[in-house]
Amino acid sequence: MYTWWLCSVLLAHLLTVQGIMWNLEPNTNKCLKEELHQNVPVTGEFTIQDAPGQKVDYVVRDSKGHILAQKEDVVTKGKFSFVTETYDTFEICFISRVSPQHRGMSQEISLITKHGVEAKQYEGIQEAAKLKPIEVELRRLEDLSNDIVHDFSIMRKREEEMRDTNESTNRRVLYFSVFSMFCLLGLTTWQVLYLRRYFKAKKLIE
Fold it and tell me: Which residues contact 80 (CB under 8 A, 6 or more apart)?
């Protein structure tokens, strides 16, 4: 039981901290997307390779185009934070801008994002509530356990929705198959009667 709990804690920790590094070409943009649940705190910290005459902007927005964080003319490093209001897909975009007087060069960007428990500032909670270090750690583990339980409940809800969708699809396919069978039987009967009348009219059969 303890091993399973420890693996769950480590897995949740790995899933809530993400780091990535890439090269941003001059006068281009790069966007990273991620789906997040409702009321999830998110923090990001990035560093940008310095390049004379080049500027980088960043913007964080949801699928509806609402801007959650934005800054222009970032020099070498920066941070951002926001809290998701609804379950949605969020994107972080970095835009390179180079003046015509300068020759552009590729810039290396490093980004580390945290969400959920890892994004909370427990140092501030410790100072405000005057908690001991062990109490702060217990608070963090409690929040982490609640997040794991919440994720499992969401997974269970999605599984139920998928099962309901599959059952509904199976019923519709069955009804459509029965309807198609009756249509074919009706069409076949109509063809037989029509041909019978036709042959009788031509006096080919009695």
Answer: 43, 44, 58, 60, 69, 71
pTM of structure? 0.61
CATH number for 17-120: choose from 3.90.1440.10, 2.60.120.660, 3.40.50.2300, 1.20.1250.20. 2.60.120.660
> On the CB side of 102, how many CA atoms lie within 13 Å of its CA?
14
Do 147 and 75 form a contact (C-beta atoms < 8 A)? no
User: CB–CB of 91/33 below 8 Å?
Assistant: yes
More confident residue, 96 or 8: 96
Cα(114)–Cα(4) distance, integer angstroms? 23
Which of the residue ranges 23-37, 74-88, 154-168 would you say has the lowest mean pLDDT? 74-88
Each residue of 27-39: pLDDT tens digit?
A: 899 999 988 888 8
DSSP reduced 3-state for 84: coil
Every domain of the chain and the residues it spans: 17-120
